[in-house]
Amino acid sequence: EQKLAYLVLVTDGVPSDESDSSFMHTESLMVKGLRKLCAEYPLFVVIRLCTSNQRVANYFNKLDQEVEFALDVLCNLEAEARQVKAVNPWLTYFPELHAIREGGTNLRLLDLLDERPFTGDEIRKFMQMFMFRTSDPPIPDWRNAAQFTQALANLNEKMSKFYDPTDRTMKLMIDVSEVRLCLMLLLLP
User: Fold this and answer.
1) Global pTM value
2) Residue 105 class from Cβ within 10 Å (0-12 exposed, 13-18 middle, 19+ buried)?
3) Over the stretch 26-72, which tens digit does the pLDDT of each residue have?
4) Which whole-number Å values give the CA distances from 6 to 50, 87, 152, in the listed order?
């Protein structure tokens, strides 16, 4: 069994060096270096941004979309929560979930949280990972929206509330009414 290592880079800016090299040159060196590391070793790279500079965030988010190695770029908790809410509005993005992502994880689903809306199967898988206990009844197929959302509501009630950094309140992990809306869109012909 091959083991996976996590490389967590923390930065507050774009690639640079001590010489007068152009940005394009230092960027190229960084990407080549990461690409080489990922080709030689089973590696997942997390880049944690410690800045609110939108130019820096845009640069690394673009890099995340372009590179062909395992990479996740994370902003601070509040910014990441806003990005997740924009594509998966049913989820309260809470600090513990952010901490898991900051440390690196090979759960591809967590990398996708802020990149695109989840499919019905992905919502169900997320629920199974973070809400489901073996003593709970099985989560129904999402295509049966009424049973699925009722099961989510039941699981939600058993859980504590989570801190939502977007509005600084305590909320349930799942907004079941938002899940219903997502499922209606997924079930449209």
Assistant:
1) 0.85
2) middle
3) 677 888 888 888 888 888 899 999 988 888 888 888 888 777 778 88
4) 18, 26, 32
